[in-house]
């Protein structure tokens, strides 16, 4: 049986803000009774609209935030109680936050990170070069971070987070600022890593390309609540991602018919036999449209 | 052992980062020495007119100033991240990068920044203590105890003030002012604090551990006072770390784009 590595049970986070000096305390529920499990080796997309509670959840699972109520366990550790032990075994990448020293080279930052994870200098060097080779940034390792492009810097950030071979990776917008080539490299590296070392990946991203090329399962969250927990394939089938046949009637009205919908197919046969159409064409519905339609619901 | 290696590397990188701006690095050290000497000269002129202030001579004052400056200097050299830098990180919700590193957040932030002006303070402090005439080979261990206790007190005050943003929003500016106010109080001759004020500064707000008790102990040694000085300093530091850890539970992460200095 596959081991469960991430467990969230009715996880809730309420932010409190006092309005004015004597004002009342205003509460905002960022995450509400969130429950889910992730098995070892799974690559899960944790998606939702802005302000939906994704980052807050990741921050609770990675020991950055204390929850207001509920329980969570990552690799058997309660994140907010066993912070140091947990973060030794996980990797965290925040697309908009840096762990590199601005005036120094990435190599300098890696030396400190390696010491934080108790890696020997030989071990660290070989891992840095292995990762740098895969991300094709060997030339940048000794340049000051301030002189790197955003894409190069992001790739260097990724190396810093993967240095200690984490068994669970939490990625919050990891491909932010990466160009197409770098995104491709990152995705193929991540897939390879997951297959080779059984790394569990918990990913939030607004880039549907990341989700489609990496994830097997989708957790969809909005207003802090879990709306959907589904394998990616089921989601596509259920919400009609794929190709849709569009029939333009003589009246000018366009009817869309999903080829998975059997009732609609018989309707299509009727339209075609009655010859009441002026045009027939195929339109693709991508995952992004599907996700956007779920957000709207 | 691995903790020592880690913090050693972190401090080294902090120095390297500060030294990346070489000219600024050297200028800050030189101007800090000049600043300290000018301050001392002003007090020297004062002592020329009033050779004894509440039983203290200029030598006592020199010893105290040396001790205050030297113990203070440890903060910018090794723990500069604690203070305004840490307060801003808490306020802006930018502690995340430090929280996902398997080391103590407080010391991780503290050791990640170095301010070279502290080296200027350190040099001045050592010189003042040496030339005060109150240090001999026999009381050197005692002076080392004062330095240890002074470092604990300054660090503890700084940690307590740095924890303010966990409990009071946007308190970093006022926090910085409070810290430098404490430093200024510690910079006056300790003999001017008498009665309840002395009791207050030697207990609840232990600035007197740096500016009052050491000079008294050098003149009249008391084992009880020395033990009190050391244990209370350690307690005060431990208490401040506890307050910080408690405050960390109230930390609210932000989503600003950020990068290390």
List the helices and strands and how they pair.
The complex is a heterodimer of chains A (297) and B (261).
Chain A: E1 4-18, E2 25-39, E3 43-47, H1 54-61, E4 69-74, H2 83-87, E5 90-94, H3 106-116, H4 121-134, H5 150-162, E6 168-172, H6 180-197, E7 200-204, H7 208-214, E8 217-222, E9 225-231, H8 232-238, E10 242-249, E11 254-258, H9 262-274, E12 277-285, H10 287-296
Parallel strand pairs in A: 3-7, 3-8, 5-6, 6-7
Antiparallel strand pairs in A: 1-2, 1-4, 8-9, 10-11, 10-12
Helix pairs in contact in A: 3-5
Chain B: H1 2-19, H2 22-49, H3 58-78, H4 84-91, H5 96-99, H6 105-111, H7 117-131, H8 140-162, H9 164-167, H10 172-187, H11 195-201, H12 208-211, H13 213-219, H14 223-248
Question: What report would you give on this structure?
Answer:
The complex is a heterodimer of chains A (297) and B (261). Chain A has 297 residues and is α/β, with parallel strands linked by helices. Chain A folds into two domains: 4-237, P-loop containing nucleotide triphosphate hydrolases (Rossmann fold, 3-Layer(aba) Sandwich), CATH 3.40.50.300; 242-296. Chain A has ten helices and twelve strands. Chain A has helices at residues 54-61, 83-87, 106-116, 121-134, 150-162, 180-197, 208-214, 232-238, 262-274, 287-296, and strands at residues 4-18, 25-39, 43-47, 69-74, 90-94, 168-172, 200-204, 217-222, 225-231, 242-249, 254-258, 277-285. The model of chain A has no long low-confidence stretch (mean pLDDT 84). The two termini of chain B are 27 Å apart. Chain B is globular. In chain B, helix 2 packs parallel to helix 7, helix 3 (58-78) crosses helix 8 (140-162) and helix 4 (84-91) packs antiparallel against helix 10. Chain B has one domain (2-248). The chains are: A alpha/beta (297), B mainly alpha (261). The A-B interface holds A 15, 18, 55-56, 59, 62-66, 80, 83-85, 87-88, 90, 92, 94, 96-104, 108-109, 111-113, 115-118, 144-145 and B 2, 5-6, 9-10, 13, 16-17, 20-21, 94-97, 99-104, 169, 249-253, 255-261.
């Amino acid at each position: 049986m596959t081991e469960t590595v991430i467990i969230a049970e009715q996880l809730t986070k309420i932010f409190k803000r006092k309005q004015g000096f004597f004002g009342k305390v205003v509460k905002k529920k960022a995450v509400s009774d969130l429950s889910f499990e992730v098995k070892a080796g799974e690559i899960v997309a944790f998606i939702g609209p802005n302000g939906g509670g994704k980052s807050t959840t990741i921050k609770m699972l990675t020991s950055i935030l204390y929850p207001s109520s509920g329980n969570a366990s990552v690799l058997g550790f309660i994140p907010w109680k066993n912070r140091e032990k947990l973060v030794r075994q996980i990797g965290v990448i925040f697309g908009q936050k840096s762990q590199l020293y601005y005036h120094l080279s990435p190599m300098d930052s890696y030396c400190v990170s390696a010491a934080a994870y108790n890696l020997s200098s030989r071990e660290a060097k070989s891992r840095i070069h292995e990762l740098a080779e895969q991300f094709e940034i060997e030339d940048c390792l000794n340049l000051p971070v301030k002189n790197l492009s955003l894409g190069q810097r992001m790739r260097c950030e990724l190396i810093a987070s993967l240095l200690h071979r984490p068994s669970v990776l939490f990625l919050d917008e990891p491909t932010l600022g990466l160009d197409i080539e770098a995104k491709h490299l990152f995705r193929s590296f991540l897939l390879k890593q997951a297959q080779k070392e059984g790394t569990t990946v918990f990913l939030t991203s607004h880039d549907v390309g990341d989700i489609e090329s990496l994830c097997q399962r989708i957790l969809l969250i909005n207003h802090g609540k879990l709306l959907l927990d589904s394998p990616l394939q089921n989601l596509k089938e259920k919400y009609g991602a794929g190709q849709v046949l569009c029939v333009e009637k003589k009246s000018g009205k366009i009817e869309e018919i999903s080829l998975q919908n059997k009732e609609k197919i018989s309707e299509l046969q009727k339209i075609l036999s009655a010859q009441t159409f002026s045009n027939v064409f195929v339109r693709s519905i991508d995952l992004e449209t599907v996700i956007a339609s779920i957000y709207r619901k | 052992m691995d903790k020592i290696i880690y913090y050693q590397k972190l401090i080294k990188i902090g120095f390297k980062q500060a030294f990346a701006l070489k000219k600024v690095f050297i200028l800050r050290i030189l101007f800090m020495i000049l600043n300290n000497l000018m301050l001392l000269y002003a007090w020297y002129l004062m002592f020329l007119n009033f050779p004894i202030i509440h039983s203290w001579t200029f030598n006592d004052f020199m010893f105290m100033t040396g001790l205050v400056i030297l113990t203070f200097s440890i903060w910018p050299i090794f723990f500069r991240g604690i203070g305004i830098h840490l307060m801003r990180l808490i306020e802006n919700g930018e502690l995340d990068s430090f929280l996902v590193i398997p080391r103590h957040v407080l010391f991780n932030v503290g050791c990640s920044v170095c301010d070279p002006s502290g080296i200027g303070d350190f040099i001045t402090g050592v010189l003042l203590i040496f030339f005060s005439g109150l240090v001999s080979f026999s009381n050197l261990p005692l002076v080392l105890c004062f330095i240890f206790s002074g470092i604990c007190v300054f660090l503890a005050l700084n940690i307590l003030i740095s924890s303010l943003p966990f409990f009071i929003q946007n308190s970093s500016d006022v926090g910085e002012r409070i810290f430098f106010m404490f430093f200024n109080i510690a910079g006056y001759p300790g003999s001017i604090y008498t009665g309840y004020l002395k009791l207050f500064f030697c207990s609840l707000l232990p600035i007197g551990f740096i500016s009052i008790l050491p000079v008294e102990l050098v003149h009249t040694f008391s084992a009880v006072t020395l033990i009190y000085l050391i244990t209370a300093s350690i307690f005060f530091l431990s208490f401040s770390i506890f307050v910080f850890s408690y405050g960390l539970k109230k930390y609210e992460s932000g989503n600003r784009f950020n990068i290390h200095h």
